[in-house]
Amino acid sequence: MSGEAIAFYMLAVLAAGSALGCVIATNIVRMALCLLGTLGAVALLYFLMAANFLGVIQLIVYAGGTLILIVFGIMVTSRMYGEKLKPRRSEALIGALVVLALFAGLVAILWRGPWVTVVPTEQPNSVAAIGQALLGTYLVPFELASVLLLAVMIGAAYLAQPAARNGRGTEREE
Amino acid sequence: MGSILRKVAFPIFLIGVAAIIVIAWVPALLYGTVDSMRDDLGRFYKWEPRGEHATLTLDNIRQYLEGSIAGQSAPAAHIRFGRSTAAACTYVLWLLQFRITRDVLAVVGVVGFVSLFAMFAIWWERKVAARMQSRLGPMRVGGWHGWAQSLADGIKLLQKEDIFIAGADPVLFRMAAYVAFIPALGLFIALPFSAAWIARDLDVGLIFILAMYGVGVLGVLIAGWASNNKWSMFGAMREACQMISYEIPLGFALLVPIMTVGTLRLTTIGDLQSGGFQTWLAFRNPFLLAAALIFFIAALASCKRAPFDLPEAESELVAGFHTEYSGFRWALFFFAEYAEMFAAGALAAILFFGAWYSPLPAAWGESWRHGPLWQQALHGVVFSGPLWLIGKGIFFVYVQMWLRWTLPRVRLDQVMYACVQVMLPLAMLVLLANTFWEWQVRDRSVLGTVANLVCTAVGAAAVLAIIGVGLYGFINRRRLVGTQVVKHLPGA
Asked: Which positions in chain A touch B237 (Cβ < 8 Å)?
């Protein structure tokens, strides 16, 4: 077994194991950290496939994202030691249906898809090529996505604004 | 014990300095030898795929070292080996041709550097603090100025009980120290110490290091949460807020030099600054100088150093996120902090202050690079090489310590105000201005040259001012700090 194969299996076990942990864990902070484990393992898989840019962006975006998720979504809203989550029966049923559909779809794709067996190597100028593609060939979708994100941010800021009509409402934050 | 240590301290110090100078260029030399050997042998035997894939056999290397192969190129051509030396060198060189050997060496080097640097920096920080507060600092362990204090502390911490609190989260509490430490090690993978001195020359090197900083914060956050203690929790929350906020000006400040050089590969960024003091990126135009300042302040906040050390504010939060930690787990947080401090300093040096090049233009020493061995060694010390980067990094670490013991800690709302209302608009302005500068002003034009000269003058004035103030203090040390201090603190 080559070094790559060993690394792949280790990372695959890590990714799948933390994904499982994310579902099984009842503590909400642990769930978030398990999610991070999965995303981190996937980022390492990208590194293994010599897709450095993708791996690094995955780490920055999802590590930062999970950080914000933990801080603002969980720590501020729940009590110190987190709340135990338990799904209701109807939620479990809907969840199971979604999961089954997704699983079937994935299996169908994996079954049919062509498998590339070339060993990937690092491309010398992948960052420049990605930059050219984003700001050249795919400029319109890229800009549309950023406009969408901007709209989301403005909406979030509007929703989070506490009683803006009363003048200086943001003064008493924290 | 103490007297023995006192006797060996100075020889150890000398050996250490010599070892650092030797270590600084020997591996690069050996790697170069192996690679040129592979090229030469490939040419001699007409191997077909040449270069990377050909594996040298022991016999190849022995014949090569004994000089029986024609057409040898530098640097090995300058030495003639005897039979026994050749036999000894053969095995070393044979091992060095494999990538895995080099990787293992790189990892060992990184771990060793981080541990040694953290030990040195902790001792040094205590001495710097002591000097600024007119006390002595550690003086006993090891004799000369308590040089072995960190070593003794390390041994003590290893022996201490690893206290585990009943109310803490069992897995996460233990894991947090590693989650904080491993990214701090990981960022050294992509951090070049010189053009040849890098474990992996990633084309995304810069954002890889940023990603590692981002992951490191999680360790602090987990530690604070898993301790199940409100002071730890506050520390972790502050760290998270601070890190998330300061990442934005940090990113903007980093975009400015990237826009100028057009690459994320740190070795390329470094090589662009090889032409002496005035080609260092910070002195190219005023906006880059401003970006260097913003980067340094934001990096200070990311490393949770004073005046931004709110996560462990000892006057309010006991010790912040690591209140509940003891023994070596506690030490790991410090190793991570000092590793990140050095990396921030080294990054500032690579991006803005001439990377691993000396203020002299590298072109002057070009003939030395291919000369005999002593010239190559001298070239590594005078013109470029890991020693310069480490020196610059240590200087920036010193500035961080200096600020820590000079400035008072700021409040959380002041931290946020400084980030969102001052640094962020400033960074955006600098970015915008640099865009227009790159777009309109040519490097060779009058405006570009004048800006370069003015910035260089500012930089040179700053360097001279630091040296001058230091010299003034040293010359007038009897009048300024008094004979009592001078007698007890050599070098005061």
From this structure: 71, 75
Number of domains in chain A: 2
Q: Are residues A67 and A6 in the same domain?
A: yes
Question: Looking at beta carbons, which residues of chain A come within 8 Å of B243?
Answer: 67
Do B233 and A68 make contact, defined as CB atoms within 8 angstroms? no
Domain boundaries, position A140: 123-164
Task: Tell me how crowded residue B114 is: count the other CB atoms within 10 A of its CB.
Answer: 21
CA distance readout (Å), A126 to A129, A130, B203: 5, 6, 8
**B320 Cβ neighbours under 8 A, 6+ residues apart:** B224, B231, B232, B234, B235, B236, B238, B239, B310, B311, B312, B313, B314
**Is the pTM for the entire model greater than 0.90?**
no
Question: Do A26 and A84 belong to one domain?
Answer: yes
Residue among B187, B207, B212 with most chain A CBs within 10 A, to mutate: B207
Instruction: Report the interhelical angle of B230-261 vs B424-440 (nearest 10°).
Output: 10
What are the sequence ranges of the domains in chain B?
A: 2-97, 171-440, 441-492
Residue A97 lies in a domain: no
ipTM of the predicted assembly exceeds 0.85:
no
* Sign of the CA dihedral with A87 first, then A89, A93, and A94 last: negative
The phi and psi torsions of B197 (rounded to 5 degrees) equal -100, 75
**Whether residues A1 and A86 fall in one domain:** yes
Query: Could you read off the pLDDT of B1-27 as tens digits, one per residue?
Result: 556 666 676 777 778 777 776 666 666
Do A83 and A140 reside in the same domain of the chain?
no
